[in-house]
Structure formats: C-alpha cells, structure tokens
Amino acid sequence: MQILEKNTGMSRIGxxxxxxxxxxxxxxxxxxxxxxxxxxxxxLTDTHDLFRIGSGITETLSCSAYTFLSAYCWFGEDxxxxxxxxxxxxxxxxxSGYFPRITAVLHFLVxxxxxxxxxxxxxxxxxxxILTFLLAIIAFADPRRNHWQKAESDTSSxxxxxxxxxxxxxxxxxxxxxxxxxxxxxKVEEWVNGTAMYYWMNSPYFGATGLFxxxxxxxxxxxxxxxxxWLPLILEMALAFSFLMDLRVKRILLVLGITFxxxxxxxxxxxxxxxxxxxxxxxxxxxxDVKSFTEFYSSGIWAKLRxxxxxxxx
Length: 314
Hints:
By secondary structure, this protein is mainly alpha-helical. Helix content is 63%, strand content 1%. The chain contains 15 helices and two strands. A two-stranded antiparallel sheet has the order 1-2. The longest helix is centred in the middle third of the chain and has 28 residues, at 158-185.
C-alpha cells in the first residue's frame, strides 16, 4: 500500500466525465413527459375502470400498511374523484414548469398514489414512481421559478451534491431495467429462436391491427421475423451498457430508443408506458455532471476524508 500526495480517485474520475449542470434541459423534458403520461392516464381512463376493475375484487380501494403513501387511501373511497382531480392540477403545474421544488414532491405523491391504488396499471407507473422520487431530490437543488429557465446552480451546494447522486441512481436504475428486459427474454424459447415477434404481433391483446398489420404481416411470415425479434434484444442490451459509450453513440441510441418505444405505443397500444420510458431514456443518455460532485467532495468536511484518495494498493 502506497500513500500518494496528489489528489486522485474522485477528481481523476471527474476529469474524465463530462462537466455541466445537474439541472440540464433534459431534467425539464423528462419531468414533463412523465407528468404528461400520468395526466393522459387520469383524463382518458374512466375512474371506475382505473380503480375498481378486478376479478373477484369488490372494494374500490385496497388499503394497507403497504399503501400508506397513497393519497387515495388517505381520503378513502368517497374522495377518489377529488384526489384524481387534484392530481390532474398537480400534473398541469408540473408541465408548466413553475416552482419545481414544490411540484416535484407533489408529482412523486401523485405517481406513487396511482401506482399503489390503481387496478389497471402497467410497468410504466412503477417506473414513474421511482423516477419522480429521484427527480424530486434533483429538484431540491433547483432555485429557479420555472424549470424551463436557464439553470444557474451553486456547484458547491450539498443540494447539488445530492442531485448528482440522484442523477447517477436514475441512470443505474434505467440501465438495470433494460438489462433485465433483455436477459429475461433469453429464457423464453421464442425469443431465442427468433419467432417471438410473430406471436406478439398476432396477439389478440397487444397485436398489430389495421394498416400496421397489413404492413408487418409479410415480414412476420418471412425469415425477416428473426431480425425483427432480435433487434429489440440488441437495443435493450446496448441501452443497458450505454454508460460505457461516448456521447455520439448515446445520441444514436436515443433516436433508436425513442423510435422503439414509439413503435410499441403504435403497435401495442400502451402509450403511457412508452412516454414514461422515453423520459427514462432521456435521463439515461443525458450527460452526468460530476464537476459539482468533485468540487463539493474536495471542500469542507469532505476534504478531511481525502486520505482515501491517496491510498493505492500495489
């Protein structure tokens, strides 16, 4: 073990990554897309279908210790419509961009409440709940009145330090989502042999219809079906390991990823999921700011811990 006098470790890692602000424009875009997805779900889905449907389920809400974060359970069945309308107002406020420090917390509450209490939800609502929680931590570092304004944050602030950790956690979480989505398919014979898309596109629940079916049917009954089946796996694995790639490759992956989720929305009809995952993609592939992380790390109480950076094992 050798003690090094010069600063290495975190500072060296920081110098290799792209500098910038934790409050990039992608922060505003992602918040808006997630809010838009939930807003469309609440507005376009009948309240009865959203909360009461279920085989053998007679009660409107099933509240327990597990659902203590659900505003619907706080106020009970008689107030479902009231909470729903209040959620719509919160989501409109999020989209407007005003007062992000306040609306970010309320946005998390809306997303978590829907995920815990609604009957007809997909994986998108769970992703939204996780992302809005971490975005709220980032929003605490946002001094702006509106998140569409140019960001000017104090890089030495502990709030910005926390925001950068939250940014990293978002990227890690989304990477894991795509990694799990790809590797789970490896266990299914139809994905491995290249025929899964034929069955998906002909599914009575999620299959292609109308003009799309006319277009894709010739491809699904040819050898090209293998290419169509394996392309999503390749893309999902690439997105899972995008943190190893440079910015130019990430831009290409962003276009491919958005196109991928757009196709899912059009062919499978799960638009809310696709919008949320587009937001997740934007957060995953946006630059991670570590300049403020390393500046905070090298100042104040953290400077006392820099002995860890001067240790090298030989």
